Amino acid sequence: MPFVADVPPPALSEPVVCSIMAAVKYELPVNIVLAVAAQEGGKPGQWVRNSNGTYDVGPMQFNTSYLRELSRYGITPKDVEQGGCYSYDLAAWRLRGHVRNDRGDLWTRVANYHSRTPAINARYRQQVMRRAAWWADWLDERFATQQVAQGAVFSGVPSEVPAAAVETAPAVKAAVVKQPVTTQPAATSGYVPRGLVMGSR
């Protein structure tokens, strides 16, 4: 029986559920979206003024400079300051744009969500990498996961994994069924982003 992404175990909080669903929807490594959500640490209704006169808004601290561009689609700051999953979807959409279109390694691209200024980006990059490693372990303990090759993250195209690289996942908690885990060579950062295995093999 496959794991159904839209019926999460009840013990998971809204930020975790929304991050997981947004990562799956926008084909991003789940641990990266969870790490950015944890790093941003925003709350519904929260507005934080930046030194450049913009504001970071809501649970994912989405910057108002991006909302100016998105206003032509009817997206307002009020939309992203609210609770619920919309701000996570919007943040994952923006993260996907950075990951697929920006330059640099994966973590620099992810840190562009926060800032392109090199010193600020480097600090955020280190923080989000640590959080992503923690979330990778958290996911591995609770869900059937697979490691995602960096090239697949950049392109959005899943990479092929040799059959010899398939292992059995540890026992999975909650309502998730035991699934195989595929492995790939580790990235230069020492671990690889995680995706969820969404069905049986």
List the helices and strands and how they pair.
Blueprint (H helix, E strand, L loop, with lengths): L13 H12 L4 H11 L6 E3 L5 E3 L4 E2 H7 L6 H5 L4 H16 L4 H6 L6 H25 L2 E3 L2 H6 L10 E3 L11 E3 L11 E3 L5
Antiparallel strand pairs: 1-2, 2-3, 4-7, 5-6
Fold and architecture overview:
It is a single chain. By secondary structure, the protein is mainly α. The protein has one domain (14-196). Helices cover 44% and strands 10% of the residues. It has eight helices and seven strands; from the N terminus they run H-H-E-E-E-H-H-H-H-H-E-H-E-E-E. The protein has helices at 14-25, 30-40, 64-70, 77-81, 86-101, 106-111, 118-142, 150-155, and strands at residues 47-49, 55-57, 62-63, 145-147, 166-168, 180-182, 194-196. Strand 2 and strand 3 (62-63) form a beta hairpin. The N and C termini lie close together (10 Å). Residues 1-5 and 157-189 have low confidence and may be disordered.
Short description:
The chain is mainly alpha-helical.
> Which range does the strand content fall in?
5-15%
Number of strands: 7
Strand order of the largest sheet: 1-2-3
Structural class: mainly alpha
Main sheet record = 3 strands, antiparallel
What fraction, in percent, of the residue positions are helical?
40-55%
**What assembly state would you assign to the polypeptide chains in this entry?**
single chain
Q: Keywords for this structure?
A:
201 residues; mainly alpha; three-stranded antiparallel sheet; two-stranded antiparallel sheet; 8 helices; 44% helix; 10% strand; disordered N terminus
